[in-house]
Structure formats: structure tokens, C-alpha cells
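pinning this so it doesn't scroll away 📌
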Amino acid sequence: MRARLTLLGAAAVLCTSVMAQQPPAQTAPGAAAQQDPQSPPLRVFIQAGLKTHAEGQHDYPQFLADWSKLLTNRGAIVDGALHFPTARELSAADVLIIYKGDAGYLSQEDRATLDNFLRRGGGIVSFHDALCGPNPEEFAGFVGGAKKHGEVNYTLEADVPYTVVDTAHPIMKGVTDFSLKDEAFFNMTWSKQPEIHVLATAVMAKTPSAGTHAGEVVPQIWTYEKSLLPGAPTFRAFVWMQGHNYANFSDAQVQPMLLRGIAWAGKRPADALATERPQRGGRGGRGRTGG
């Protein structure tokens, strides 16, 4: 059973759906360069999952609550759930953000829903182990790269030292080489036609799970653009492979980068979500109560 609740009443996070939105706010002086006034609000659907791993790790429900508020406060219209969105839910979205384990396990219905969403040019954003599943070739066709469930293809908790490869890309604006304590993946299945556009790589740490892969340089942040049918709109994907440790979503370089990646995937100016907009009339947004 898929229960729904609004963000206005979200005192607890463990639920099956959350949605928040607010009317477009007045742009503060000097913020005109951040968002095209002609662009409609970015519509986002967040697919999260149940909490797994240790405290502070893989906190998918907390992400759903925190980032629903964060994106809403930046002018986005946000919906979300702990299940894969229905066709109706995705029809109202420009971008699908996935932060849950093993999102590559898709039913035939969910696969068809995602396929239709991408065919119309919808954007997709994948964080951490969302790109894990039984058929990495299939999921790589959605986000550019994926890893197979059940294989040892991770470093566990270790240093992830980023080398920014494309400093000119709008998503990487102002990002310099830095390091996080997180988890990196290797043994990836990559899309060949087209290939990913690498934004940053990392050297695999020497951990017991890395084995002979220690020292390999593997893309960890990338974009991917593709059209599923001749003449169909091109969809955009943005991937940040980390997020094992939930605190890293708030890192001073990571959070602005992710906001730019979400906006870019939604075919908006990269800085469209950069400015936090004050609440209007003391309201935190308008939630949906039905459905």
C-alpha cells in the first residue's frame, strides 16, 4: 500500500511518499543571473529507499526529507516516495533523483515508465549505489555506467581523492580537487554509444575489498546524454558515485555541485537552484493532501 503525506505534516520520515512545493518566489536583487526568469520551476521527483547500513550511512529517508526542503527552498517543485514513481508521478517531473540501494532492480512496469520518461527528455540523477543491479548493461543505458550486484566492486570506507577532469563544465563551477571519506566503485559497466562525459575521477584506495584494483583511476562524477529513439528529445543524466556517508551531501564543495547537476539534468541553467529563496507569507510550501 502506498501511503502519502505532505511535508507540512512530516514529523517522521519513514513513510512512503512526501511532496512539497511553493509558488515561484520573487527573485532577490542580483539573483537574476542565477535563474532565467522565463524558465518554469524545476519539477523534481525523489526516489528514496528504506534506511540501510550503520548510523550515518545510506540514510535514504533522511535525504528525502532534507533535500525535498532544500530544493523547495530554491524554487523547485518537489515530490517523492520510497517507491519507484508511477507513470502519473513521473509525468509531472522534469528530473528523477534516485538515492536508494540497487535501483537497477526494475520491474517491467517500472522499466517501461522510466523508458517513456527518458524518451520525452526527462532528466535522471543517480547517487551512490543507485546504479547497482542485476543487469548493469541496462542501467548503464540510462545513466552511462552501472555496477553488478553481488560482485566485490567497492572500496568500503576509504579516502576518495577527486581529480577534476573538466573544470569548464558548469556543474563543476568553482570545484577544485578535494578528498572525502566515503566509498568508491570500480569494475564498472560503461555505455559505449554514447560514452559518458567524465567530470572527476578518483584513485581507488588500497583496501582489502579493492584487491588488485587499488591504484586504478575510475570516473566517479560524470554526465551522460542520449536519445532513445531517432528524433526523440535527448535526455540528460548526472551521476555522483558517493553518498555512502550521508554527511558528505552537505560538504561545502559537494552540495553546490549536486544542485548544479540536478538543474543541468533538468535542462535549466546550472545555477538555477543556487539561490535560496525566502518563504512567502510564513508558509513553507503547499503540500498535496490527496491521492
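📌 and the second one:
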Amino acid sequence: MKRAPLGNAILAAAALAVTFALPAQAQLTMPRVSPGAKVTQTVGTTDFTVVYSRPGVKARTIWGELVPYGKVWRAGANEATTFTTTDPIQFGGKPLAAGAYELFILPGRDEWQVIVSDTTGQWGAFTYDSTKDVMRVPVRPTSVDPSQEWMEFSFEDMTPGSLTVGPSSTNLVLRWEKLQIAVPIVVDVNGKVLAQARTAMTSLKKDDWRTPYQAANFCLMNKVALEEGHQWLEKSLGTQENYSNLGLKARWQMNEGHKDEAIKTAEKAIELAKASKDKPDTAPLEKLLAEWKAGKS
């Protein structure tokens, strides 16, 4: 038997080494027909996130054909749509705990059901299991003009809210082709802030006047837990009297109808501010004081 020339053997070994040195076949990232999307919204201090894929109309009949009536739909394309809330909320008038869920929809000719499912990671609605339903929210679709080509989730119609907490509700809206649905969401902003304040009061540092001041200011601005808020204001004043908490005390006294006391407290606050090295802006309180003295408030 003839032996292969040594040079050929070396070349073959080198080729084999190169073959094993090549990286594994790369996976191409291809564009999806229905692109992925994510929409987020903060209401109060609660964060909402919807992750979904956006199918297009593409001259098709959507409702009743592409998306059949009476059949559970993934509320989008590709993976099932997910909805996440960082706090307990009211979703469609029903309590929903904080967490991540999947959203499905059961469309009908007149009424739809928005389904919140305690599942994650599903592809479409092919393995949808009704025993995992957390709730079903009935909604009625309304007309859209102009037509929406790419399916879209959005958070709309937020309540104006107060000066200190902002909105406390919004609508989760699904809009596609010539229809849309809206699910109302309500957040207990006051309840959450008050709970945080109560917890904070149990671990205050000795020189911390700001935390009880902020909590008391929240109570007065939103007219909630006023008795508790008054105690927090006194705690702040007991730690350190300054322009901020004395100004709040003056407004609190005026709110309770003690005008003469409010004027004296406001004057003291302004006097402290002008003597302070920090030189806080006293214009807002001075304006209030002038109005009180003129009998405008």
C-alpha cells in the first residue's frame, strides 16, 4: 500500500483543524412581519407595561374573519401579549394584584371579553387555558376614524389628578382597523403614598424634618388623612422649625379657619427665611400673606 506523501497529510490535518476552529453557524435575525412593540405608562408611582406585536390590516377583513368572533385571540401577533403592573390596581373595575400577566381577547359582534391570564411565555393563544384566567372584563368596541393600519396599544384619558399626585386613572386602549376597546385602570395613589409615609415614620433619623414635612404637605394638598398629617407636621416642627414647615403650618391653620394664627405663623416663617443663609424664595408665601391680610382668602 502506498503511503500518502507527508506534505498531503499535513495539509489534510491543517484543513481539519480549520474546520473545527470555525464558529457554529450564526443565527440570522430576520425582520418580523408583525414588529414587536412596548408601551409603558406611570400613573402616580405605579408603572404599567404592555409588550406585544403589531399586525397590519394589509387590505384584509379583520374582525369576524382574520380574528374570528367567539374564538380567543392573542391580542396581537407572535407571542401572547403581556401586561405588567408594579402595584395592585383596579382593572376594568376588578382588583388585580401586582405582577406580570398575559392578555387575551374574546371578540364578539357586540361585546368583547378582555381576559387576564396568570400565564407567561406562550406563543399565541394555541395553548390558552381558561383555568388560568384571573379575570374577564366585558367591553364594547367603538368605531375608529380614520382606520388604524397597525394594531396599537396605548394608555389614554388619564385623569388630571392633583397638584401632588398627578393622575390616578387611565384607559388601556387597543385600536386596530376600524374598532377600538378601552379598559379603565384605577390606581389608589393616596393609599400607596400614605402607606409609604407611615412606614417611613417608623425609621426617621433624629434630624430628619423633611420626611414628615413632605408627608404632611401631601395630606394637606390632597385633603386626606388630615389628622395624621397634622401629627407629621408637628413631628417636623419638633425636629427643626424652618421656612418650609412653618409655611405649611400657616397654610394648615388657614385651612382650619384660624386666620390670625396663620398670619402670625407666616410672618415668622418669612422672618426665619430672610435670616437664613440658604435664602429660600419667600415670594409665594408673601403673596398668600398679603391676600390673607386683605381678606381675599
